[in-house]
Amino acid sequence: MPQPSPHSRSAHDMGASSNGAAPHGLGAAATNGNGHGRPHTNGGPVADGAASTALHHVEDEVVELADLQPVMARRTLGLVTERLFDVVDVTDACAALVADSGIREGTLTVFSRHTTCAVRINEKETCFLEDLRLFMKSLVPEGAYYRHDDFEIRDPETLAGPAEDEPINGHSHIKHMLMGAASESVPVSGGAMELGQWQRIMFIELDQSRPRKVCVQVQGWR
């Protein structure tokens, strides 16, 4: 009988019990003697009539990797943004790297090397992006006072060069932190990124027009 690959996992390994019961924490129900159950939380059974959100469907997938070769590929995308809140769709460039690498199963990471830009996955829809731009502008206005831009109190060692060459972009750094957006990761399966129907990978400029670099790396098996 062939032995299972060390890279594969059985249903039992992934938490299912030997009698076919759902693994604990995956929406299992507290059962009574006749096998019927009531939804429960970590704290105990849900009271009658209480609202409850149950995990009603789980799809497990076991991928055989024993005959596949581990691979890593990296590509740097150079671009020049046009303005504050310029949105550059890099999805197709990421898909091209996955295709060129030949990786069938793995993970793609998109990383910004800048502190005033964002990498985000969402719908690239004009009205939504304008709503986001206006919301961030109202939340962090460009014309407000930021200590980052006050060179009389700022540590000179943090400046990239002479003060006159330093961008006035305190708002951009704060927007970057609020968006939590240095990188995004996407699963790769069957040689393609597992993006949803409307999801796109977007590089968002939060400062001003300038040259930028986006690092794209995919690693996995082919």
Features of the shown structure:
alpha+beta, Jelly Rolls, 2 domains, three-stranded antiparallel sheet, 16% helix, 30% strand, globular, disordered N terminus
Task: Detail the topology: elements first, then pairings.
Blueprint: E1 29-31, E2 37-41, E3 44-45, E4 70-80, E5 87-89, H1 91-101, E6 105-112, E7 117-123, H2 126-139, H3 170-179, E8 183-189, E9 192-193, E10 199-205, E11 211-221
Using the coordinates above, name the CATH class of the largest domain: Mainly Beta
The name of the CATH architecture of the largest domain is Sandwich
Count of beta strands: 11
- The percent range for strand residues is 25-35%
What is the oligomer described by this structure? Answer: single chain
Segments where pLDDT lies below 50 for 5+ residues?
1-41
Number of domains: 2
CATH superfamily of the largest domain: YjbQ-like
| Count of helix runs | 3
What overall form do the CA principal axes indicate?
globular
Mean model confidence by pLDDT: 83
Walkthrough of the structure:
The chain has helices at residues 91-101, 126-139, 170-179, and strands at residues 29-31, 37-41, 44-45, 70-80, 87-89, 105-112, 117-123, 183-189, 192-193, 199-205, 211-221. It has 222 residues and is α+β, with helices and mostly antiparallel strands. The protein has two domains: 1-67, no CATH class; 70-221, YjbQ-like (Jelly Rolls, Sandwich), CATH 2.60.120. It is globular, with a radius of gyration of 24 Å. The two termini are 26 Å apart. The model is unreliable at 1-41 (pLDDT under 50).
